[in-house]
Design brief:
It is built from three helices and 13 strands. The protein is of the alpha+beta class. The chain has one domain. Strands 1, 2, 3, 4 and 5 form a five-stranded antiparallel β-sheet that branches. A four-stranded antiparallel β-sheet has the order 6-7-11-10, with no helix packed on it. The chain is globular, with a radius of gyration of 17 Å.
Length: about 220
Amino acid sequence: MARVLLAILAGSVLLAAACGGEDAPALPPQAPAPIAQLIGPWQPQPFVLDPALRSRIEQACRRDMERGPANTAALVDVRGGGVAVVRMAGQDAGTCDALEITGAGQINGAGGGWRADGVEQLAPIEATELTDAQVGSIGGGSLTVQGWSAIGRAGPGIASVEIEPAGAPAVLATLENGWFAGWWPANVPPDRLGDPALAPDVVVRGYDAAGTLLAEVRP
């Protein structure tokens, strides 16, 4: 099966890092993206997030969910458009489907999400498994973009995750703490944001470090 370029590139980079011996220099770490990139055009690959800004995003999501400090960000996906997608875990888990990052570095509530009371009980996951995938919506508040997202879990043997929405560019997901997420722009009719009937068909694929397909799931 033909793989799109994003997955191949991701697998190649991870393979180079894993196989780097004495003759292979270590790859330099990617620098955190400046605010100008975070509020700039959407891109199919995620940006690296500054830890201090990530902390503010986590706090904003916790504030929107009206939860305490035991509710922490397992994953934050940023890839332009002034959007941050957050998956919270631990005590009272949930999502912030879309937070707004402003040019001044402020974090504002925007889109929807969900929350659950009590400590989240996650089922065991196989090393090469993708599971618990769901589609969310992007938009609301002062955001100037709309779209859709996919969030789910990935086993520890999966090195990269690619999201392929029907009729939209493939997305290289953020992969963090056993979770994956990514979003893509799409036009949504007025007053229909978040309507699951409008969500496109999505295929999520997980690869190992060599770019070999390990798992596939449809939210």
